[in-house]
């Protein structure tokens, strides 16, 4: 007799707007920012918070305001039951996508029935690379003897990784500007058409993503100096530093049936891979291939893709290598327009993806993103 594998369903997903560095969300403590998401998620689904088995939160810079298990602090700051546990994880930029993976895995294993997965990052309050900045009194993470033996003393940095990918995959700089302009145009259209309305939780009088530009001047974009001397990427070709939070409620089939919940999608297949830690950002290529293979799908079977726009070259190299039509990628804009609040981005992308799948009637959606250390998560969702 063949056993039926338990399924994990995304019941709802909600996110804050993404705020610009120093913008409308910067005054909020990240625990309060994420707490707003937790409260809204439970209110929207009608799930009794005391029935939640676990809360899994992604966050990259876990120090200062984001130290000491910010996911637990957010749950408690929202006045939710102290009996519900929480954990905060770090898989770099994929932290909250991994949070969803862990939630789905616990449910598919039959160990839990309701898990809240999410992420938060206030890059205004805890700046980029704070935890590894020697200038702040911390040691440099890529400086040990073992690291030097295996990977040398070369600079390890995402900006260099983005440029190396542009060089290795032969990505044309004008194509990068095309992608950046399209990102803003798609996000602006999504705002104007109300495509984000079902997923957005206004916070602190911020009602829309703050970084989206209605118009883009290619000549001005070209004139901005590169991030690295002699590099390919300048600020318009990279994700925006941002503040934000997002969350998803993941439930078992038993919980869905007993509580009368209406899921948006099922978590069809998940995977995570390692890749070159010096190149850093090429992981979405093998991750996408692996998750498609495990799902029994081809790239053409997927209706919608979310590939995080950490750098323009990352998305273009991935699409070129995997054979993905850019018309199906980041159709409502990506991180170059919306922003990349590191630990929140995995959940933000999945929130945007699952709501667009419902809006457009797409059957399959695939999300992937590059991550520090040469890592990448990939997730296939199926609309139900």
Describe the structure.
The chain is of the alpha/beta class and 384 residues long. The protein has a domain of 116 residues: Thiolase/Chalcone synthase (Peroxisomal Thiolase, Chain A, domain 1, 3-Layer(aba) Sandwich), CATH 3.40.47. Helix content is 35%, strand content 18%. The protein has 12 helices and 10 strands. Strands 1, 2, 3, 4, 5, 6, 7, 8, 9 and 10 form a 10-stranded mixed beta sheet that branches. Strand 3, helix 2 and strand 4 form a beta-alpha-beta unit. Helix 1 crosses helix 2 and helix 3 packs across helix 12. The mean pLDDT is 96.
What keyword list fits this structure?
single chain; 384 residues; alpha/beta; Peroxisomal Thiolase, Chain A, domain 1; ten-stranded mixed β-sheet
Global Rg: 20 Å
Q: What fraction strand?
A: 15-25%
CATH domain class of the domain at 268-383: Alpha Beta
CATH architecture of the domain at 268-383: 3-Layer(aba) Sandwich
Tell me about the largest β-sheet: 10 strands, mixed
Number of β-strand runs: 10
Q: What is the name of the CATH topology of the domain at 268-383? A: Peroxisomal Thiolase, Chain A, domain 1
Helical content class? 25-40%
Give the helices and strands as they follow along the chain. Answer: EEHEHEHEHHHHEHEHEHHHEE
> Which shape, going by the Cα principal axes?
globular
As residue ranges, the low-confidence spans are none
Q: Output the CATH homologous superfamily of the domain at 268-383.
A: Thiolase/Chalcone synthase
How widely separated are the two ends?
Answer: 26 Å
User: How many helices does DSSP assign?
Assistant: 12
């Amino acid at each position: 007799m063949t056993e039926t594998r338990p399924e994990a369903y995304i019941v709802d997903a909600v996110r804050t707007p993404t705020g610009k560095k120093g913008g409308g969300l910067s005054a909020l403590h990240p625990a309060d920012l994420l707490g707003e998401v937790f409260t809204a998620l439970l209110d929207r689904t009608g799930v009794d918070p005391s029935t939640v088995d676990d809360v899994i939160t992604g966050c990259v810079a876990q120090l200062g305001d984001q130290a000491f298990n910010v996911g637990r602090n957010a749950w408690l700051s929202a006045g939710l039951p102290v009996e519900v546990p929480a954990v905060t994880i770090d898989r770099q930029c994929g932290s909250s996508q991994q949070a969803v993976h862990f939630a789905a895995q616990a449910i598919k294993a039959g160990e839990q029935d309701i898990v809240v997965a999410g992420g938060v990052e206030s890059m205004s309050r805890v700046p980029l690379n704070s935890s590894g900045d020697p200038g702040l009194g911390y040691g440099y993470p890529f400086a040990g003897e073992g690291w030097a033996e295996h990977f040398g003393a070369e600079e390890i940095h995402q900006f260099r990784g983005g440029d190396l990918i542009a060089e290795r995959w032969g990505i044309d700089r004008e194509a990068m500007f095309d992608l950046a302009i399209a990102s803003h145009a798609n996000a602006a259209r999504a705002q104007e058409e109300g495509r984000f309305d079902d997923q957005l939780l206004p916070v602190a009088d911020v009602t829309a993503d703050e970084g989206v530009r209605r118009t883009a001047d290619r000549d001005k974009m070209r004139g901005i100096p590169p991030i690295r001397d002699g590099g390919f990427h300048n600020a318009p070709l990279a994700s925006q530093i941002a503040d934000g939070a997002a969350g998803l409620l993941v439930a078992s089939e038993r919980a869905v049936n007993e509580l009368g919940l209406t899921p948006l999608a099922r978590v069809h297949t998940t995977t995570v891979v390692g890749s070159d830690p010096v190149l850093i950002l090429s992981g979405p290529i093998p991750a996408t291939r692996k998750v498609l293979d495990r799902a029994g799908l081809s790239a053409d079977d997927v209706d919608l893709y979310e590939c995080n726009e950490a750098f323009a070259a990352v998305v273009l190299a991935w699409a070129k290598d995997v054979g993905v039509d850019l018309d199906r990628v980041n159709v409502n804009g990506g991180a170059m327009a919306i922003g990349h609040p590191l630990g929140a981005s995995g959940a933000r992308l999945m929130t945007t993806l699952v709501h667009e799948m419902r809006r457009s009637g797409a059957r399959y959606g695939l999300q992937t993103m590059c991550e520090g250390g040469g890592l990448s998560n990939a997730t296939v969702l199926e609309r139900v």
